[in-house]
Amino acid sequence: MKNLMEHMGLDPGRLHFSWISSAESTKFVDVAKKVTAEVKALESKEKKFVKTKPKVA
Amino acid sequence: MAEKEPKILSFLCNWCSYGAADLAGVSRMEYPSNIRVIRIPCTGRMSVKFILAAFRQGADAVWVSG
Amino acid sequence: MDESKCIACGACTEKCPKKVVDTYNAGLAKRKAIYVEYPQAVPLKYRIDPEECIYLTKGKCGTCKKKCPVDAIDYDQKPENVTLDVGSVILAPGFEPFSPAGLDNYQYASHPNVVTALEFERLLSASGPTHGHVARPSDGKDPKKIAWFQCVGSRDMNRCDNAYCSSVCCMYAIKEAVIAKEHAGDDLDCSIFFMDMRTHGKEFERFYDNAKNKSGVKFIRSRVHTITPLQDTGDLELRYVTEDGALKTDVFDMVVLSVGMQIPAELVSLSNKLGINLTPGNFCDTGTFTPVETSRPGIFVSGAFQGPKDIPQAVVDSSAASAAAAELLSGVRNTRTKEKELVPEMNVLGDRPKIGVFICQCGINIAGVVNVPKVVEYAASLPYVEFATDKLFACSQDAQDSMVDLIAEKGLNRIVMAACTPKTHEPLFQETLTNAGLNKYLFEMTNIRNQNSWVHKNNPELATEKAKDLVRMAIAKVAMQEPLKETELDVNQTALVIGGGIAGMASASSLAKQGYTTHLVEKGSRLGGQANNLFHTAKGESIPEKLAEMVKDIESNDRIKLHLNTELSNVDGFVGNFVSTLSSNGNEETLDHGIAVVATGASPYTPSEYSYGSDDRIITSLDLDKKLMAGDPALKKLNGALFIQCVGSREPERMYCSRVCCTHSIENAIELKEINPDMNVYVLYRDIRTYGEKELLYKKARQLGVIFIRFSIDNKPVVKTENGKLTVTVTDHVLQLPMELEVDLVTLATAIIPNTDEKLANFFKVAINQDGFFIEKHAKLGPSEFPTDGVYLCGMAHYPKPIDESIAHAKAAAARAVTLLARQKIFSSGTIAQVDQANCAACGVCVSICPYSAPSYAEKGRFAGKAEVNPALCKGCGLCVASCRSGAIHLKGFDTDQILTQIFEMDEAV
């Protein structure tokens, strides 16, 4: 999946997977913060975030 | 809005991460408000289609959590 | 606190001025005087601590009453006495952890870095005071070396009065050490100081082995006498003697005391009041064949009050106690149930969606952050929305009633509720829909409290935006929702029990006593299984006598149909509707049944080690039982008898403990000593595992002069016969020298090995673990059932166990089965997968991928050979939907279109 994203010109850092049990609220918050921070970092790095629409979904 | 806040589309498993997210609320923890949640019955329900659709729709990121 | 009004908003706790010690976090954190015991409490309701509340103790304050938005605070609530007429009573009062405060040599009361295992458990917990990061209580430093002391308050008659073993502490100490290392990384040094390592539970030995060899937890066989604090450093110095007699000193950052279980004094006085007998350790006295019955008829017991035990065992007990109570009360089952009146359902199929949107303010919980009127206004502007409004508390009774009225008045046919979490409140709102005559699946709930207002309270603007997005996504989804049907299935009221040993018989007997016709299938020619080979129980009851009673009970029960010399040759169907083929001597008959209990037992291991078979003086434990049962006069003349433990157990190829052999050998060692007190009796062992009050037998054996010699797995004893002399050579662990013992009898405590039955596993689609035992639904919470609905598990097919545990397990399986049988009808969920057979390519991916075996190939009709999903088995996980390459499977309620529309609606701008 991440390879495909790279191929399409999307930064693989925009896709995250995680596994969190229903008791791990702390972990949930940590991952939420991490994902947001990484995306914001990408955002400022790329400045103009232009995506070419893929021809097929 | 001066700076557009990125939108992160998250697919949360009903039994795991969705529960964790609820619990984070009960404990009044704080985290960034960029996340939009779609509740799915199980991460087994996830499909590549959804991820692609989300990006096509302009999601800045996708987060899948089981 | 009025529980029916409390909405768990937490406003009271936030403003409560009184801070008190949090007992849930073992005193390691603070909470308020008005509080919720722990965040995952069910029901989630706040309560007032009457001993700490300022208003209740001093008559002033009342802050919480002022802050409560729903007027749930009632300071005048008083304890009430309620009198109930009941047919039976189940005691499940639990235990108290031993308090080490009185042990001054361990410094628990005076030093913060000496904690109990329960306190350490909170330090490890994600919801604990340190959020799962282990920090030293004295200075918050990350500990580098932690020591665990076993048997604190157990197996100890010097410093306390608890002679028994608490059964659970070895395992929890290993678990804590492994988790601590997982969190802190490899440089954390974890040492466990122990006497005997008792990992006798299912999968426990392997866990122990991995802790030692993979996680690097150190195990030191020594009882530490004293802890000396090192001045102001917070460090603790331990002095202990190793096995070879060397005195060692070591410094640790923290010490965890593995405290045992004990019965609190109030419980002893309650027992006296109830007139039930207690054991020497103050546990509830029960018989081996009646493991959940107290000495008073009609009063049953479960959990640690019956004896120290771990969670799975307590879960088994609780089901068993409910079965025992139900056997007594089966005649009055369902006499007090009330039927609910049903509102006829409107047919809205094909109608244009008319969506009603309700936004809950939840007092200030949502409205305090999210601009609710704006969200309402926004929702009303969206397509298909007929009506949008807000509610102060959507879950209150009057709000519910007004929703029912509004649905009728505005002709709404889809509802969106933006409120708290669907995990707790979806059923409530769905019931409101049902009451309004709407199909309950025409509903979507979106979470703007737990996952929005509560977590973004410093950012009201963004939280409002998020709420709008979430509401828009929910509206888009519900517009595509269709009314769903819950399939109704009859449950055949007949039971099938496979295996005629102790467990199978006990299970069949319980099912029959609860009113169900039960077929008991045994492949052999007689009932009783392995119990036919056993002499007496650890409590001294005669097994042949009790077994004969059980067999008689089975044979004389009209509801039990006995099938001896019979095996299963096929199983079709599913929960509530199985069709099995029984074959006996070439004859086959089919049987329709609603449930099945698997009790296929286990067998003794035939040893190849220790020269077994070369000399008739080298026998197995069961052979010795036979001699004892027959009253063999030769036993009295023996000069020396020796037992070797762990024969075939706890070996690399059989990495489990057979659980019963230590007790069995010790029992027989005592028996031999009683026959002839002059006999030299030796037990060669690796760890003695007389858990619970069986420890008292171990003590008795030592008092009678039985000699216990420990050996290690890499230096096993050697058994030799030379010139008619039988000798055993073993290296003594204290002397570190080989000793030669001349004896007349060597008894090998052989392993219990499973009757691995792969055919049966395939029939019922259940799994077998690497040791060959069946895998239960959940190791802790589902020990008596399989993941396959309608199939239950008990006895040694699950794991080796003594008779009392087998019978409790058998009753537990029966109790679980009755929860299904008693319903008579089952309803599938509406949110299940359905195959569009016209598009199905019959590739079979769904059939092989489903963990619940719900999809299969249709056998007849226009679409024979294509996949179909059995609604009774489908759990709605969606695995098949995602795997289907033809897009032919649809998950109702979470269909691809619905998820895609949520995705499309995520960002309005695009």
Detailed description of the structure:
The complex is a heterotrimer of chains A (57), B (66) and C (910). Chain A is mostly helical. Chain A has one domain (2-46). Chain A is built from 2 helices and 1 strand, in the order H-E-H. The model of chain A is unreliable at 47-57 (pLDDT under 50). Chain B has 66 residues and is an alpha/beta fold. Chain B has one domain (8-65). The radius of gyration of chain B is 13 Å and the shape is flat. In chain B, 71% of the residues are buried. The model of chain B has no long low-confidence stretch (mean pLDDT 87). Chain C has 23 helices and 44 strands. By secondary structure, chain C is an alpha/beta fold. Classes of the chains: A mainly alpha (57), B alpha/beta (66), C alpha/beta (910). The interface between B and C is large, with 36 and 46 residues.
Sequence stretches where pLDDT stays below 50 over 5 or more residues of chain C: none
Shape of chain C: globular
- Distance N to C terminus of chain B: 33 Å
Describe the main β-sheet of chain B briefly: 3 strands, parallel
- In CATH, the topology of the domain at 96-262 in chain C is named FAD/NAD(P)-binding domain
The CATH class of the domain at 96-262 in chain C is: Alpha Beta
Task: Give the gist of this structure.
The complex is a heterotrimer of chains A (57), B (66) and C (910). With 66 residues, chain B is an alpha/beta fold. Chain B is built from 2 helices and 3 strands.
Reconstruct the topology from this structure.
The complex is a heterotrimer of chains A (57), B (66) and C (910).
Chain A: H1 2-7, E1 15-18, H2 25-46
Chain B: E1 8-13, H1 17-26, E2 35-40, H2 48-56, E3 61-65
Parallel strand pairs in B: 1-2, 1-3
Chain C: H1 11-15, E1 19-22, E2 29-32, E3 34-35, E4 47-48, H2 54-58, H3 63-67, E5 89-91, E6 96-97, E7 114-116, H4 117-124, E8 145-152, H5 169-184, E9 189-194, H6 204-213, E10 218-221, E11 226-229, E12 236-241, E13 247-252, E14 254-259, E15 261-262, H7 265-274, E16 299-301, H8 311-329, E17 355-360, H9 372-380, E18 385-391, H10 397-410, E19 414-419, H11 422-435, E20 443-447, H12 449-453, H13 460-479, E21 488-490, E22 494-498, H14 502-513, E23 517-521, H15 543-555, E24 560-563, E25 567-574, E26 577-584, E27 587-593, E28 595-598, E29 602-604, E30 618-620, H16 621-630, E31 640-647, H17 661-675, E32 680-685, H18 695-703, E33 707-710, E34 718-722, E35 725-731, E36 738-743, E37 745-750, E38 752-754, H19 758-764, E39 791-793, H20 803-821, E40 825-827, E41 833-835, H21 845-849, E42 855-857, E43 867-869, H22 879-883, E44 889-891, H23 896-904
Parallel strand pairs in C: 5-16, 7-14, 8-9, 8-14, 9-10, 17-18, 17-19, 19-20, 22-23, 22-28, 23-24, 28-39, 30-37, 31-32, 31-37, 32-33
Antiparallel strand pairs in C: 1-2, 3-4, 6-15, 11-12, 12-13, 21-40, 25-26, 26-27, 29-38, 34-35, 35-36, 41-44, 42-43
